[in-house]
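Researcher: I'd like a structural prediction for the single chain below. Treat it as a standalone chain; there are no partners to consider.
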Amino acid sequence: RFKWFLFLGIFDLSVTNTREICGFRIHGQNVPFEAVVLDKSTGEGVIRAKDKMDCELQKEHTFTIQAYDCGEGPDGANMKKSHKATVHIQVNDINEYSPVFKEKTYKATVLEGKKYDSILKVEAVDADCSFQFSQICNYEIVTPDVPFTVDKDGFIKNTEKLNYGKERMYKLTVTAYDCGKNRASEDVLVKISVKPTCKPSWQGFSKRIEYEPGTGSLGLFPSMHLETCDEPITSIRASIELETNHIGKGCDRDTYSEKSLHTLCGASSGTVELLPAPSSSANWTVGLPTDNGHDSDQVFEFNGTQAIKVPEGMVNTNLKEPFTISVWMRHGPGAHEKETILCNSDKREMNRHHYSLYVHNCRLILLLRQDPSEAENYKPAEFHWKLDQACDKEWHHYVLNVEVPSVALFVDGTMFEPFLVTEDYPLHASKIETQLTIGACWQDNSGHDNDTESVSEPTSGGNARMAQFFRGNLAGLMIRSGKLENKKVIDCLYTCKEGLDVQLPEEVAAAVKVEFNPSQSSLTVEGDDIDAFDKVMQHISYLNSRQFPTPGIRHLRISTTVKCFNGESCVAVPDVEGYVMVLQPEEPKISLSGIDHFARSAAEFESQEGVTLFPELRIVSTITREVETDPESEVAEGADDDPTVQETVVSEEIMHNLDTCEVTVVGDELDGEHESLELDMSQLQQRGLVMGSSNLGLVITGVNSMANYEQLLHLIRYKNWHTEALFDRKFKLVCSELNGRYVSNDFKVEVNVIHTANPVEHANNAMMQPNFINPVHHASVDLSGHNLVNAHQASVVPSAATIVIVVCVSFLVFMIILGVFRIRAAHQRTMRDQESGKENEMDWDDSALTITVNPMETYEDQHSSEEEEEEEEEESEDGEEEDDITSAESESSEDEEGAEPEDQQGASRQQQLEWDDSTLTY
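Model: Treating it as a single chain, here is the predicted structure.
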């Protein structure tokens, strides 16, 4: 019979037996207990643990135990064993572990405006083995003042409706407790995101998009996608508009002159520009108000009080042949009075309008009367177009192709047919000349039009009467006779340099349809696959191909229509607005350089070729950039804290296009009777350029490279065939591009005329004469209006006055010789520099040189010996041989050259100055 008791893990065993109990045996594998006999006679014993017990490893242990006696005799023979008894041992638990959460972080998303029964569940576990200590009895939100609660099972819910505008994400700290009151070892973070109530809209759109000039294409919506709130969509249509109406004439266009643009777009010759930028050769727009805008595009403003007269001969008034009128116009709102754009009317008396283009009640009207020489037949005389564009206060491009009896109008590249044509008889024959005007119609004082009023015109001068004034802006008014503009040229003239672009991915090209408007300022995207639609939108880009675009804002708008299975708009997607910010471009600086001061002999000015004004001119365009400096080198060189430095570098496209170079005379105007500026016209025509000239200078216009302009300017020659009274001439050269947007420096050139004195007879033996010469045999000589009379013809010994005069004259002659030597040496250096191709050198620096022609030259000849002695005493006291140059030597040299025939004098003027000056120092 076994009995056992449990005392701190030790069991007492008692066995009833007549013999003594010698031990106990435990049966089982890896039993962590042992049995020990306490009293052999009574058979009591204990079961005790070999090691410490761990409830978490094993809560219970079960094994069998058996007792055996000591047997018979000293060797323990016949040892008896008891039956086996089963022992059950249960290990009691202690609260030694804290709760641990199963996740490091919990996340959930909820919709705003909704109360949830449960948002998410947090869960913690406890490693204790007993039910009491292993159960989680409570959860708690530690973060204060949050609209959430958690129950004992770990379910979190909101206590109020959430507002996306107030808070987009809540972060909560939650802890847990087991039933033994132990707190979790680490709290857990719970993130609850608030999602706005689903509203169909474009997501991932950046409102401001910066564009750096010269970087090519810029993606506008790289991360954008359409949220449709899981509605069953059947089709999507989006319109993207780039609003650039405030930029120049509606968008970024090249600001070359309109005539240059016609050439660039392939229009043939014969185009006359009626609103040119004011210049010396085209001055009839001087005084007309301008609105240059942001990009220096030449725009003329007509405020209803001013008009201009086009000079005679600019336009052929015979318009029987086909002709084209093109103009940029911004006008509005419409008025009840006629507003004239262009008008050709009688100069006096009758005030008949031969042809005109005007706006009336938002209609564009072309009046074209038959010439008196034509047959007396009814022919179309007025063509009307009802146009919204004529009164919307926006820039539009108008082109009229006139080939009587048909007229085609193109507005922004789109063709419009006239809706009303009025016929009329030809005008009556008269000998009255016509006047072409812009901004109004010319009315002579004798006219009786009620609409006339006196105005002060910019170019007419005097009292004039005009009628039907225009109110708005005009630019690029052109007339081209003899040929009509084709559609390709018209589109080129109107096309913007900036716009929208899209590169369709191959995988979505078939699923989505994309269409552009002619100016590429807007496009539409259509499709039924929302994923493909998003990809196309992400590939839409902004592109500006101008080298120097106009900086500023370009507004963007996206309008979207979504349809569902019933074919109606089931989802309303609000419009999206943003803007492209075009940053300030790196502007070019055009520099003109070369020889700016030189001299030529009078013979060269009078020759057939003349004198080249800009033989070594260089035109270079540079850009100033801000560049980051290397911090290491900055420290090494001891640079200051400024992270940027200004560095001038040659622009990437070294030679830009120019469109104008103007040479003007500084000082008196050119006298056409004996001087001119000339340039080979064939050279101009080869480069497609035109030239205008006046007594102020000449102007070369047309778009061409800097290299071509350089070559042409090298060929400009100045001729003067009356140089007697001319000592110098000054000219100024200025070049520009983009219709004056960027202007070069003023490059000034001064040309000096080298005059040689007319040869007179000199005594070859002047050096052999005595110091004082009796001048009785000389008669008085008239030189340059001065009568030099010898007052002491009978004197052998000169008086004191004579000595003073001789000394003064000798000094003057010495200065003349010195100046001539310097001129000769400088001229030779100039010739050598030109032959070697050196640039930007001056032939000499004569800023302090004054050459005086001595009117007493005859008197000097008589006293050359005395001059020689006194000059030697004053200037060469040390007796150096190189300073021993006398006036007699100079005179004998001139005397030898004076023997040449008169017809050879002009060609030999430079040779007159040739003498040996190798030993001269000055």
